[in-house]
Design a protein that fits this description.
Blueprint lengths: L7 E5 L4 H12 L3 E6 L2 H15 L3 E5 L5 H9 L10 E4 L15 H28 L5 E5 L12 H20 L6 E7 L6 H5 L4 H7 L8 H13 L8 E4 L4 E3 L2 E2 L4
Parallel strand pairs: 1-2, 1-4, 2-3, 4-5, 5-6, 6-7
Antiparallel strand pairs: 8-9
Bound molecules: 2-hydroxyethylsulfonic acid.
The site of 2-hydroxyethylsulfonic acid has 6 residues, from loops.
Enzyme class: oxidoreductase
Pfam families: adh_short
Family: Belongs to the short-chain dehydrogenases/reductases (SDR) family.
């Protein structure tokens, strides 16, 4: 059944991982997609594939969400009929580096804060007013992390950005309580995507090691939960979902089989 037929969904960070799986699951559910990412070729290909596979409409936009001027321009320049965005999936985000705070890279911190926190704010600031203007039963889905609940060693700044996502989600939900707009914070634990490759700046050996001895979540697992939250009846607001692999209790407590 096409649960989201005709709904317009904006997905940030759609070229890889959870964003990409989300785009696929949403297209399968009948949604019309606006996909954004920094890499235009990847989302252009994805967009085309989804159009062919699911016969749905899909727009690809090259966008770095941490660039406020670019975010404003991208949304202002959307064709009028695409401005009626029912659902915003704030997925774009990254972890960079895994080291003690006092030995970390300030450049990595800037990137994480700019993308994970400011990028999410910029998109939300632009898109929620459109949901209100068009009187939509809007929905903002933020992709947070278990790292936003429990900090772990060597991850202070990443954890802090996801903690910000947690509280921004809570605050936004309060600010929108007198509207039909719902706010959901999805907090996945260890999910095998290119997350660790990015974190270790392309060191594949290190990245692989993160998931050795466990069965991690897949991006499809998370996409399924997001589609579920979006498809719930309008009076049902799924505020928060925390999901970990069965072998992960919290950020740092992981049972690895030898
Ligand atoms: C991803 C969860 O535990 O790999 O945000 O940091 S974890």
């Amino acid at each position: 059944m096409q649960k989201l037929k005709g709904k317009i969904v904006f997905v940030s960070g759609a070229s890889n991982g959870i964003g990409r799986s989300c785009a696929e699951a949403l297209a399968a559910a009948g949604a019309k997609l606006i996909l954004c990412a920094r890499s235009f070729n990847k989302i252009e290909d994805l967009s085309k594939n989804l159009r062919d596979l699911y016969n749905t409409e899909s727009l690809a936009i090259k966008l770095d969400v941490s660039n406020r001027g670019a975010v404003d321009k991208a949304i202002d320049n959307l064709p009028e009929e695409w401005k009626k965005i029912d659902i915003l999936v704030n997925n774009a985000g990254c972890a960079l580096g895994l080291e003690k705070l006092h030995e970390g890279s300030p450049e990595d911190w800037d990137n994480m804060i700019d993308t994970n926190v400011k990028g999410l704010l910029y998109l939300t600031r632009k898109i929620v007013p459109l949901m209100l203007k068009y009187q939509l039963n809007g929905h903002v889905v933020n992709v947070g992390s278990t790292a936003g609940i429990f900090a772990y060693p060597n991850g202070a700044v990443y954890c802090a950005t996801k903690s910000a996502v947690h509280f921004i989600s809570d605050g936004l939900r309060m600010d929108l309580v007198d509207t039909p707009i719902r706010v959901t914070n999805i907090q996945p634990g260890m999910t095998e995507t290119n997350f660790s490759n990015v974190r270790f700046h392309g060191d594949e050996e290190k990245a692989k090691n993160v998931y050795a001895g466990i069965t991690p979540l897949t991006p499809e697992d998370i996409a399924e939960i997001i589609v579920y939250a979006i498809s719930a009846p309008p009076h049902v607001q799924i505020c928060e979902v925390t999901v970990t692999p069965t072998q992960q209790a919290t950020g740092g407590i992981v049972y690895k089989k030898k």
